[in-house]
Amino acid sequence: MRDGQERQNGCRRLLHALADDEGFFLERWSLHMARAGYLEHTTARRLDCMQALNEFLTPMFTHEESPAGDDPEWPDYLWLVRNEGEWARTQIESARRHRMRGITADMYLGCFKTFIHSLVDVIEHMDGDFRDKAMARRLARRYGDALEVLFVSDWTRTLPDLAAQRLDEANRLLTLEKCRFENILNATSDLLFVTGPDGRITNVNAAALHALPERKLFGVPVWELLNIEARSMEELLRYYPVGVSCEMSPLDNGLIYRMQMTPMNTVSLASDEYLIALTNVTSQASQRDALEQVVAQRTDDLLREKEHLEEMNITLRNVLKSIEKDRESFIRDISAKLGHIVLPALERIEAESDPAIRRGYVTVVRDQLARMTPGDEASDPLLLKLTPMEAKVCQFIQAGHSSKDIANSLNLSIETVQTHRKHIRRKLGLHGKTTGLYAHLKTAGLPS
């Protein structure tokens, strides 16, 4: 068996956890208030409701059993007044403020009973030992019963004396507060529309009246006024969810607005209305469009530059291929000249005993090595086209000897010398030309 102190500790833990279950408590209280017919008359904010709950639970967190123990018939309100004086005075002041706002005693006590019922519902809903829950329920009811007695006593004993004075003061303060909030709403440039649960407009601010001076506003479905797709409040909430803003041009003024819907029950339990705010974002939208155009233009420029770079890469690759081909062609030309001109000339130098002809071959080698550069189109050397005997005949012709002298010197017949001369002219490209062989040899740079 758990002793009394353990039960009280378990009860306190439940009460502490109860204060954190805000959503379920407000749900139950709204339900009980609606069933009793009070919800539509209340102006309580959700924050006010949670503050009332925390203030009511405060003395229970440190509660000790009264002298009567568990006897439910014990007049706990006397004990509360004696032991919880400050807390009781706070609750009574709250009741007085409601009275000054025009709330009758019956309505206030009825709302307070729905408060206690909701509190008991939350306790029943919580996880915990049934004896701890029973003790928490009993505490809530006993504190509630005690407060009801205090409320009735205060209202019947002291309140009539304060009513006239406080009511005038309250009305004045409420009027000032109402005017202050109306001024705040009318000072904003946002267009504000308040609709009922059916989507019909019930109130607007000055900016909305100014933007739609000749339009009927009150009682008109908001989707018809703003030319947006919807035929009911359900569709409107589906197309434009709460908390999600969207841009539109609902009015015939060329302006762009950001629309956002806010349910009023997030502020007040009694309200089933919606606040629809239209904020002019034309300048921001224009600036955004301009920036998007700049981004699009720069993107196009980058794409064009990328295409240009790709074309340049292709061109460079083709140039590199061409250079590689030229290099390979140059190497082939060098190899050909070495194989067909320089090396044969060296072999002939090695095999030739005549110093003059050897000097001619040396000239050929030197000339070809000097000409082995890219783009050189030097013709084949003359002496490499001639046989050794034809080269000797060329030496004599260049020296100015006649065919007869050449024949005698080389021990050849004149016919043979003539044949050599004919072959030399053909090999040197003089066949069919009038250029003399002597004159050509003199200008060809052949060694004498």
Give an account of the 3D structure:
The protein has 448 residues and is mainly alpha-helical. It is built from 17 helices and five strands. Strands 2-1-5-4-3 form a five-stranded antiparallel sheet. It is rod-shaped. The N and C termini lie far apart (142 Å).
What integer value in Å does the Rg equal? 58 Å
Please report the total strand number as a whole number. 5
Largest sheet: 5 strands, antiparallel
Q: Kindly state the mean pLDDT as a whole number?
A: 79
Q: Please give the alpha-carbon distance between the first and last residues.
A: 142 Å
Order of helices and strands: HHHHHHHHEEHHHEEEHHHHHH
Instruction: Provide the helix percentage.
Output: 55-70%
The main sheet orders its strands as 2-1-5-4-3
Uncertain segments are 66-75, 375-379
Structural class: mainly alpha
What spatial form do the alpha-carbon principal axes imply?
rod-shaped
Strand residue content: 5-15%
How many helix segments?
A: 17
Quaternary organisation of the protein chains: single chain
Characteristic terms for this protein:
5-stranded antiparallel sheet, 448 residues, 64% helix, mainly alpha, 5 strands, 17 helices, rod-shaped
Strand and helix map with partners:
Elements (H helix, E strand, L loop, with lengths): L3 H15 L3 H15 L9 H12 L18 H8 L1 H16 L4 H21 L4 H28 L1 H29 L3 E5 L5 E4 L1 H6 L10 H4 L7 H7 L6 E3 L8 E7 L10 E7 L1 H70 L3 H17 L16 H11 L4 H8 L3 H14 L9 H7 L5
Helix pairs in contact: 1-7, 2-6, 4-7, 5-7, 5-8, 6-7, 12-13, 14-16, 15-16
